[in-house]
Amino acid sequence: MAAKKANDEVKLSDELTKIVDDLVSSSKSNGSISEDDIQVAIRDVDVNDDELSDLYDSLRVKGVEITTASEATVSFAIEDDAVEDDFSSDDDLDDSSDFEDEDDEDFDAVNEAREVKEALRSVSKAKVSKPKRSSRARARRSDTTTVMLTGDPVRMYLKEIGKVDLLTASEEVHLAMKIEAGTAASQKLEDFEDGLIELNRAEQRRLMRIESVGLDAKQQLISANLRLVVSIAKRYVGRGMLFLDLIQEGNLGLIRAVEKFDYTKGFKFSTYATWWIRQ
């Protein structure tokens, strides 16, 4: 892990230092760098979470302006060719006769959509499940506590997530603080259930309310960034994975990012989430 000097300059490995120097040079030529520039620069490097954070800190210390995905690449059109090539607005996934003249790849896409019948439900109906008292720790770690794609066609999914407003940096921090408080409350309730601490009924109710608020905040942060997953997934269409699979995998990365996001680092969530989604 990289260390920091007394003057706040970040100490990186030689490999990451060279990457930072290249990015700094690029920013001087172009005025700024994008998240994509950073992701491309580190794609062949084994970077852990702390090293990634230190890399961003180093760029910030050097005065590099980073344009975030929400500023540059998050927005997308529902009728985009990358989506419409596989799912025409006239398609009905329940009418196989509409696809009689399509090639094998189109049939694969349709079959995949049927097989993942529980995939791609309207994000407005997806909720974070409140963990049962007997399994709070497992629920916090489980990917199934958050939004997973289940049900409707891709087109409807894209339409629904497009309705969710993007978050400002301050709103992201506000939600992250709620998530942090909810996680702490959940841990205390778990300790109480294990007999490690004592809580009266009023304290239990208070902690349960905080826990619930944290789960809602987690859902909001995920929902507001689902279009970021789609934006990144579309760049990998045609590389051996179906669009549905790319979105599913990207959402797992988004979930990891929400769980690990440290708002005290100072960068936007989308900047942090992009790395996890690409993994």
TrEMBL record:
<dbReference type="Pfam" id="PF04542">
    <property type="entry name" value="Sigma70_r2"/>
</dbReference>
<feature type="domain" description="RNA polymerase sigma-70">
    <location>
        <begin position="245"/>
        <end position="258"/>
    </location>
</feature>
<keyword id="KW-0731">Sigma factor</keyword>
<keyword id="KW-0804">Transcription</keyword>
<dbReference type="InterPro" id="IPR000943">
    <property type="entry name" value="RNA_pol_sigma70"/>
</dbReference>
<feature type="region of interest" description="Disordered">
    <location>
        <begin position="123"/>
        <end position="142"/>
    </location>
</feature>
<keyword id="KW-0805">Transcription regulation</keyword>
<dbReference type="GO" id="GO:0006352">
    <property type="term" value="P:DNA-templated transcription initiation"/>
</dbReference>
<feature type="region of interest" description="Disordered">
    <location>
        <begin position="85"/>
        <end position="106"/>
    </location>
</feature>
<dbReference type="InterPro" id="IPR014284">
    <property type="entry name" value="RNA_pol_sigma-70_dom"/>
</dbReference>
<dbReference type="InterPro" id="IPR013325">
    <property type="entry name" value="RNA_pol_sigma_r2"/>
</dbReference>
<dbReference type="GO" id="GO:0016987">
    <property type="term" value="F:sigma factor activity"/>
</dbReference>
<feature type="compositionally biased region" description="Basic residues">
    <location>
        <begin position="127"/>
        <end position="139"/>
    </location>
</feature>
<protein>
    <submittedName>
        <fullName>Sigma-70 family RNA polymerase sigma factor</fullName>
    </submittedName>
</protein>
<dbReference type="InterPro" id="IPR050239">
    <property type="entry name" value="Sigma-70_RNA_pol_init_factors"/>
</dbReference>
<dbReference type="Pfam" id="PF00140">
    <property type="entry name" value="Sigma70_r1_2"/>
</dbReference>
<dbReference type="GO" id="GO:0003677">
    <property type="term" value="F:DNA binding"/>
</dbReference>
<dbReference type="InterPro" id="IPR007627">
    <property type="entry name" value="RNA_pol_sigma70_r2"/>
</dbReference>
<dbReference type="InterPro" id="IPR009042">
    <property type="entry name" value="RNA_pol_sigma70_r1_2"/>
</dbReference>
<keyword id="KW-0238">DNA-binding</keyword>
